[in-house]
Every structure is written in C-alpha cells, then in structure tokens.
Design brief:
The complex is a heterodimer of chains A (about 240) and B (about 725).
Chain A lengths: L2 E5 L6 H10 L5 E4 L10 E4 L19 H11 L3 E5 L1 H8 L6 E3 L7 E3 L2 E4 L15 E3 L2 E3 L3 E3 L2 H9 L3 E5 L19 E5 L5 E4 L17 H17 L2
Parallel strand pairs in A: 1-2, 1-3, 3-4, 4-13
Antiparallel strand pairs in A: 5-10, 6-9, 7-8, 7-11, 11-12, 12-13
Chain B lengths: L2 H6 L4 H11 L5 H10 L2 H4 L4 H4 L9 E3 L6 E6 L2 E9 L1 H6 L1 H17 L4 E11 L5 H21 L3 E8 L8 E11 L14 E6 L9 H4 L20 H17 L2 E6 L4 H12 L3 E5 L12 H6 L5 E6 L4 H10 L3 E9 L3 E6 L2 E7 H4 L14 H8 L11 H10 L7 H4 L10 E3 L6 E4 L6 E7 L2 H6 L1 H19 L2 E10 L6 H21 L3 E7 L3 E2 L2 E2 L3 E10 L16 E5 L10 H7 L11 H16 L5 E4 L4 H9 L5 E5 L8 H7 L6 E5 L1 H14 L3 E7 L3 E6 L2 E7 H16 L1
Parallel strand pairs in B: 4-5, 9-12, 17-18, 24-27
Antiparallel strand pairs in B: 1-2, 2-3, 3-6, 4-6, 7-10, 7-11, 8-10, 9-11, 12-13, 14-15, 15-16, 16-21, 17-21, 19-20, 22-25, 22-26, 23-25, 24-26, 27-28
Helix pairs in contact in B: 7-8, 7-10, 8-10, 10-13, 16-26, 19-20, 19-22, 20-22, 23-24
The chains are: A alpha/beta (about 240), B alpha+beta (about 725).
Chain lengths: ~240, ~725
C-alpha cells in the first residue's frame, strides 16, 4: 500500500504516524509540502502539529502550500485522505470538510485520554470497529472545538457524516464527555463520499500497549483491509 | 571613562580595575558592556564556582561533565542521554508566558547543539500562595507558555513538580530541563578551532529583544524591574523546530567543528566561550550579522538575546553545505567571521575594529569570589523549636482529605493536561507517575527522569535538605524501575552577597555533593540562579535536582497505583516519620520548624539497590515513595482501581505517635505491593540483605483504611480522596 504522509514545516506528529504504520506492517513515504504531486498514492495522511506555526489560524496557511492543491484534486477524484488534528483543521480550511475548529471551550490546551463512540463502521476508515463501540483515543489540541452552522450540522447528521463522537466512560453523549465544546460532541467527520476523514483524536498514539493502548490500530488496519479488497476486486 | 558607565553595565569598581589590567588599556564602552555581561553572575558563576568545584562529576557512565552546553551519559548500545536544567525565573516573573516559553526553547537548544534529538522536557515550578490572584495569573501564564512552546515544537513535557509557598510570592521559579538522545558518534561541542575556519550565524535574525537579560538575571527583582521588561525575549517555537531539524542534519553531516546556542548574552557569550574552549580567537564583522531591525549598534548586536540563533564553526570550504541545509529549512546562515590564532575576540564594523578583547579574559579570567558565610539566626532557633502543644487538628480521615486537597499535594493534572506529554509516542509512564519513563526506540531500554526538591527541608537544614533532594529524585526513579545514572541541577537561591544566603548555598551544595557521591549519581552540569529576592526577601533555598535513570527492560516498568485487589503491601524503611518540616505542620499549625530525621545515605543506597533488585526480578506490582503528607497520603495516592487496608503495630505511648505515624515525613521510604505468592520471598530477601521491610496489609475495597494496634483509626473513600485531590487546582485557576 502506498501511503504518503505530508510534512509541513511545523508538523510534529508525522514521524509518529509513520512509526504507527510501521508497527502495523506498512512503510509510508514522507511528502514535503513543496512537492506538487500525490499521484500513485493509495492514502494521504495530513498529520498533527502546528503547520507553519499556526500563527494566523490553525491550518490556514498549510492549505495554500503547493502540495495541497494536488491533495484536493486527489480527494475530489476519490483518493483516500486522513487528516488527524492539525490535518483535520487543514481539511476544513481547504473546504474538503465542512465546519471549523475553534479554541477549546475552556480555552486551555488539552492532552488527555478520551472516550469516543464509533458512529459509522461502514467506511474504509472504520470497518474493523463495531458500530456504537466505545474506544479510547487521546486528544491533544488547543483548538478542537468543532463548530458549524445549524443547517450544516443538520446536513452532517442526516447524511451520517459523523464518524466519532466524544462520550463519557459509559458511552453516553453528554456535556461531561465533551472535552472541548464541540457541537453534538463531534470528534471526527467524513465527507459525503466517504473518502476524506478528519478527526481531532490521535489514533497513531494508541497502536502499542506500552505507550497507552491499541484502540487506534483498527483505524489503520481498516484502511489496509479496504485497500486489499480494492486490489482484489478492482476499485 | 565615567564610573557611571561601568556601574550601569553591572561591573564593580574593582572589576573595572581588573578589566583595565587584563586589557592593558582603558576599554571602550562596547568592551565594558561585553565584560559586564560576561562577568555577570549568570554567565561567569563568579560566586558559585568555588562551591560547585566540590561536586563529584566523574563516573564510568559520564561522557561529558560540566562545562559544555549539556552533560552526556552513556546508556549502552552506542547511545547516550544528554540533559541539562536551567532557570528562567526573572523573565517569568515579568512576562510569565514568554519567560516560560523561552526557558523551554533555551534548554532545548542546549541539548540539540550537542547533537542530540530532544525527547522530553520537565518543568519544576514554584509559585507564591495559590490563594492570591497574582499567583494565579503567573501559574496560568507560565503553564500556557511551557505548553505553547513545547507542544508546538513537538517535544513532550513529561514531568516536573509544582509547589506553592509565600517565599516565591514576588519571585516565582521556572526551571526547565531537557533530555535528548544521541549516538556517540554524533556528539558535537561548543568549540571554535582550526585557524581560518569560518564563523557563521545561523537561524533567526538578530533584534533588540533581551538586551542585557543575563545582567538582569543577576540582580534582585524590585519595582524597577517592571521598567526592564524589554529584557525579556520572545520565543518562536516554529522557528526553533526548523532550527533544530537543520542543526541535527548539519551535525550529522560532519561539516562542522563546533556549534553553540546563543543563549544568555547572545553572540557575546557564544563567541568568546567557543574561542576560549578551542584556545583560539574569533574575528567577526558585526555588519554582516542578519538583523531584523535597522540602525542597531555593535553593542546591541553583541548583547541581543533574540531567540532561536546559533553560532556555527564549519570546516573551511564547507560553508556552502551549511547554507544549503539552512536554506532548505527556510533559515539564514551567514559567514560573519573566522577563527584566528591570536586568542582575541575581535569585533569589526564594516571592516573597522570596534572591540578587541582576549577571549579568555572574558571566560577563564573572570573574577572568582569567596563570599563570607554566616549561619542564619533562624537555623538553630527553628531546629530547636519544640513541637509541644501540637494536637491532631481533626479526625484523621479529615486530615487526610485536607492534605490531599492542599495546593502542594493536590493533583497537578490541571497543569500537565495542558502539556502534550505523548508526542513522539515514546512516553511509557506519563505525568502523575513517580518518574516519567520514555522508551528508547530500537532497544528494550527506557529512560526514567524526574525533578525534585522540597525547599522547606532545605530551608530548615540546607545540608540535609540538599541531600534529600537528590535522595527523592533517586527514589522516584527506583520506584519506576530505573537505575539512577546522573544529575543536573538548578540551584535557585537568594542574594549570595548576604552571608546567610551564601551559607545556605554552600551547605546545600555540600549535601548534594555527598548524596551524589553515595548514590553514585555524578553532576553533569546545571545552572545557578542567584539573586532570587523581591524587595530584599529571599526565596527558600531551592536546589532543584533533575535526575536521569536507565530502565534496562521496559517490561519491568512499575507504576505507582495498586494494580489489583489482593496484593500484599509492604513498606521499605522506617514505619514512622517526623512532623519536622512536614506538610501537616505547615497546613494545620502554620509552622515550619523542627529537626529533620537523621539521614543515613548509605542505608538509603542499600534500600534503593534492594528495591531495584526486586523490580528487576519481576516481584513488584506497584511502588510509590513516601514523601510530603507521609504514609497516609502515599497510601491514598496509590489507591485508584482499588483501596487498601493496612494494620500497623505501634509501641509508643507518646500522644502524638499516631499522628506522626500517619502524616509524619521521612525520606528513604517506599511503599510497594507484591502478589501474595511472592510475599514470603520478598521478606526473605529483605532479611538476607538486611533492609527494613514491614508488611502492612493488602489491597482491596474502595477505601483507604488504616488500623493502629488493631483499632481502625482512619478510613476514607477513594472517590472522596480523588475528588479532593483533583478539584483544588481547577477551582483556583479556571
């Protein structure tokens, strides 16, 4: 499987994503932000970090980098794109996903374990999770408060585009389980076509028990499985 | 020259005389400014040097001791750990966010200039009383600043400690430690040698920020300090991330002879220190230094503390390689001069010489002071202060909850949740553990790291307290299964010109030195922060110890929470402690007094060796050292998934015996649990080794229950313990 991880100046989770894939038997390539083509890849990952220092607004400058133009083309042609944390912010900035990520409700940066509920498991990203399953994937952000207007929210929910929701330990969607004030406890969404996923939690941080858990493994393995099927049966 | 000029630059009249002597002529103003900053306490260690010389600095594991940007210790497999701690106290008092942020940035540069990739940051913090609004403002700013820098650059902040005490009211302490990993073959040093080799300034442009920061760090804070706000630098973690990647790439390319961070005193200290270490001279034309402002004078360029800059000496002919690496990362790299043979720091402006000073006059020839010492009046008085009249203030269960909720003992999760402590995905033991543990990729090994200092102990007895700071660090490492390797220190004290303060300094350092000798953890470097006073009031002496240890096999890592019900719990060390200098006494009686329990370092070493042996043998389920708040607090801290019931026999008829048993403090004690089937084995090993081990009870239930002589004396629900511990900081700070 050809996986490309885009490295913007200021990205800081790109190596972690690379290591996570390696643990799961894949060897991705690093793509420099100045490259102009992502042709030939089966998956593009936009990793977490502070691209270009995030000085203007998170993800706001990264969307204008040379490589993003081709990532947008790639996504529109159905290519798989996964944006984690800052990657999610970039995906909303460049319009591949709706909404925006604002400062956390209490204005603090938050690095903590987080319960999530898998809402969609019919996607290439999540097929190995059980629908409604509660998993633990840590969050690590200062601006993860998902915002969208009422009409947009209605559309997201009606189309079933919410993939992960923040929940409490018992799996309930409530205020106590919502770390950052996101509307409808949204932690991750997919585009209508199902090939672009953006999520604030960091699955790459939980693929090995020794550093905190393995609940992130199945996201990566789902993608491999989907790719294998595609190889077997054609796209 | 008018005396006013050198005095303003921080030189005494005698020091100015020494300058004239060393120069063989009257210096010009630029030269006086350079001497002023290089001979400041911050850069020259002129007061502390004679004391620091007594630290043990050698051991088979030490690859680089004090004197470089950071110390280096071997961990086998061709790998080494690089670490150093520094203070950023005065800047943080004025500008908490930027002060703390640039503290992190500076210490990271010290580590990656040695060729190491930083893997972790630790932050010991000290503030005034949490009840005060100004403290809250500082805490919020400092924590956000540390997070803002560390999180952005992508280095996890994994440990530290936070204490509140009125002595830090006007002068908070913000210490930062960085730890890095490198392969032996990539070790780089801050040395300029090879006549004719070019000298390059790389990284950010030079501006007017931070001018005279080092001098500022070497005077007491006062109301006038506010006016010196421009002495605080502004950090740019994005720039530093680029600089770090470029420097590491450059070092590994083998194109350079030496590299040094431009920290305190910027271009001045980096150039003369590199020249001095290389027994060379350096000649630079300041008009070639890239600037971000126009009209900067040579003085401003030399004294600027703009962040994220480095001085690099490449091998002649390879400067283009340096430029290429830096340009790829979007950074500047400019040749500004060359290494010379004459030992002079020669500065030019557009070809004209504007300063010419023997480099060694600025470094090795800096004055050294042997300050007078005097035992302070309080020392004997507090030591002998009777603790009579003390009574248990409340039922023991309520005391326990009050202690758990007191600012010093309360959970610090409000702080560390704002730090990315996982980036790099190597953090095996996260904040909240006795020590952090990070894995070393590609090996079975892990690195343990911790920072510690109970300043109240140091105040009451600087010698014993200094030693105890080292002991606490060592026992924290041992509790996670790491063998202590070496320390760095950040020695925060008041004005050393006061004999009582210098006495504290000397005594504390002697205690540290002795503990390091016995525990076999040499000092590999550190930082001295003096003049921590506000309007004449000194902070409690706070020699923060940063210690690094080696976990041979990550499978053996032990955590400080009970693993499951039905484990047997043991106490290594004395069952009872002392109220002297205890958190109990401070919280309930507003008293900080008493004679600390006697300290037997050899015995403690024996206990730590024993504990490590048990852990390596796989016999230990959980372990936690007994520190502030004593036995009851330590037991409550271990409870989580399940509670504990312990039963202790007490023979004393002394009316305070129970209180002392439950809340008395004494370092050198560790609580640990084992599976029932291993209990007899552990007891036999203890007897064989001759260490004191007492079986206290077993884990289980959902309370912490302590019986004394068969009678239940204290019981508290785990949920209540956790609630009280967790609520304090958010309540005060949100």
């Amino acid at each position: 499987m050809n996986i490309g991880i885009v490295r913007f100046p200021g990205s800081n989770c790109e190596v972690d994503v690379w290591e996570a894939w390696k643990v799961l038997g894949q060897v991705p390539k690093m793509l420099w932000h100045q490259e102009t083509s992502v042709r030939g890849y089966d998956l593009i990952v936009l990793p977490g970090g502070f691209s270009y220092g995030d000085y203007l607004r998170t993800g706001a400058i990264a969307r204008f980098s040379p490589i993003m133009e081709d990532v947008i083309r790639f996504a529109k042609e159905g290519g798989m794109v996964l944006g984690i944390c800052n990657g999610f912010q970039i995906l909303t900035e460049c319009g591949l996903l709706p909404g925006a990520l604002l400062r956390n409700r209490d204005l603090h940066f938050l690095c903590q374990p987080q319960y999530l509920r898998a809402e969609r498991t019919d996607l290439a990203f999540t097929s190995l999770y059980q629908k409604g399953e509660v998993i633990q994937i840590p969050i690590n952000h200062g601006e993860g408060n998902y915002a969208i207007d009422d009409a947009g929210l209605k559309e997201l929910e009606e189309n079933g585009q919410v993939v992960f929701r923040y929940v409490d330990a018992s799996g309930e969607v409530n205020e106590a389980g919502n770390p950052n004030g996101s509307r409808h406890n949204i932690a991750g969404i997919v585009n209508r076509e199902g090939n672009v996923l953006g999520m604030m939690p960091h699955p790459e941080r939980v693929v090995e028990e020794i550093v905190g858990g393995t609940d992130g493994q199945r996201l990566f393995l789902s993608l491999v499985q989907a790719w294998e099927r595609r190889m077997q049966y054609g796209a | 020259m008018e005396p006013r000029i050198w005095r303003e630059m921080g030189l005494t009249d005698e020091e100015y005389e020494r300058v004239v002597q060393l120069m063989g002529r009257e210096p010009n103003e630029l030269e006086v400014g350079i001497f002023g900053v290089m001979w400041s306490e911050h850069c020259s260690y002129k007061t502390s040097k004679p004391v620091l010389r007594r630290f043990p600095t050698e051991g088979p594991q030490v690859l680089q001791g004090p004197g470089e940007n950071a110390g280096i210790v071997d961990i086998g497999d061709g790998l080494a750990v690089v670490f150093k701690m520094e203070s950023h106290n005065h800047p943080s008092a004025l500008e908490p966010y930027q002060g703390a942020a640039t503290g992190v940035g500076g210490i990271l540069r010290d580590v990656f200039t040695m060729g190491a990739r930083p893997i972790a940051v630790l932050d010991p913090l000290r503030f005034g009383p949490l009840e005060e609004e100004n403290t809250r403002r500082l805490v919020r700013g400092v924590v956000a600043g540390i997070g803002g820098y560390g999180n952005s650059i992508g280095i996890p902040t994994v440990a530290g400690d936070v204490y509140f005490h009125e002595s830090y009211r006007g002068n908070p302490l913000v210490n930062a430690m960085a730890v890095g990993l490198l392969e032996h073959r990539h070790i780089a040093k801050g040395v300029a040698s090879g006549v004719g080799n070019p000298v390059m300034v790389v990284g950010a442009r030079t501006g007017r920020d931070g001018i005279h920061g080092a001098t500022f760090a070497s005077v007491e804070l006062s109301e006038e300090s506010e006016a010196k706000r421009s002495a605080v630098q502004v950090g740019d973690p994005f720039m530093e991330k680029l600089l770090m990647e470029a420097c590491l790439e450059l070092i590994q390319s083998g194109a350079i002879v030496g590299i040094q961070d431009m920290g305190a005193a910027g271009l001045t200290s980096s150039s003369c220190e590199m020249a001095s270490r290389g027994n060379s001279g350096i000649e630079m034309d300041l008009s070639l230094v890239p600037r971000r402002e126009t009209g900067m004078t040579p003085y401003e360029i030399m004294l600027s503390e703009s962040q994220e800059r480095m001085l690099v000496v490449p091998k002649a002919g390879r400067e283009q390689e340096v430029e290429e690496v830096f340009h790829r990362w979007g950074l500047e790299a400019v040749v500004v001069g060359k290494v010379t043979a004459d030992g002079m720091l020669r500065l030019l402006e557009e070809g004209k010489v504007v300063a010419e000073i023997p480099a060694k006059a600025l470094t090795d020839e800096a004055p050294v002071y042997h300050r007078p010492t005097r035992e302070p009046e309080y020392y004997a008085r507090l030591k002998e202060q009777p603790l009579d009249g003390i009574k248990a203030a409340k039922p023991y269960g309520e005391i326990l909850l009050d202690l758990l909720g007191s600012p010093n003992l309360a959970s610090k999760s409000w702080v560390y949740r704002q730090y990315d402590h996982q980036v790099g995905t190597n953090t095996v033991v996260t904040p909240g553990g006795d020590a952090a543990v990070l894995r070393v990729r590609g090996t079975q090994k892990g690195l343990g790291m911790t920072t510690d200092c109970n300043a109240r102990y140091v105040y009451l007895d600087p010698y014993v307290g200094g030693a105890l700071a080292v002991v606490e660090a060592a026992q924290n490492l041992v509790c996670v299964g790491a063998k202590p390797l070496a320390i760095t220190d950040c020695l925060n004290f008041g004005n050393p010109e006061k004999p009582e303060i210098f006495w504290q300094f000397e005594q504390a350092c002697a205690g540290i030195a002795e503990a390091c000798r016995v525990l076999e953890t040499p000092v590999t470097g550190g930082n001295v922060s003096l003049y921590n006073e506000t309007n004449g009031e000194a902070i409690y002496p706070t020699p923060t110890i940063g210690m690094v240890g080696l976990v041979e096999n990550l499978e053996q890592v032990v955590r400080n929470r009970f693993a499951e019900p039905g484990e047997e719990i043991f106490l290594l060390g004395e069952v009872s402690g002392s109220l002297a200098g205890s958190e109990y006494l401070a919280l309930f009686d507003g008293m900080e007094a008493g004679t600390l329990p006697p300290l037997d370092l050899k015995e403690i070493k024996q206990r730590l060796d024993f504990m490590l042996k048990l852990i390596v043998a796989g016999l230990v389920q959980s372990a936690h050292d007994v520190t502030e708040g004593g036995l009851a607090v330590a037991l409550a801290e271990m409870a989580g998934k399940c509670g504990v019931r312990v039963s202790i026999a007490l023979e004393s008829a002394y009316e305070l015996a129970e209180l002392i048993l439950l809340f008395g403090e004494r370092l050198g004690r560790i609580l640990f649990t084992v599976k029932p089937e291993n209990a007899a084995k552990v007891q036999a090993l203890a007897e064989q080794t001759g260490v004191l081990v007492t079986r206290l009870g077993e884990t289980g239930g959902d309370t912490v229950a302590i019986s004394v002589n068969g009678e239940l004396k204290l019981e508290a629900a785990i949920s209540e313990c956790q609630r009280r511990s967790e609520e304090t900081l958010p309540k005060a700070l949100n």
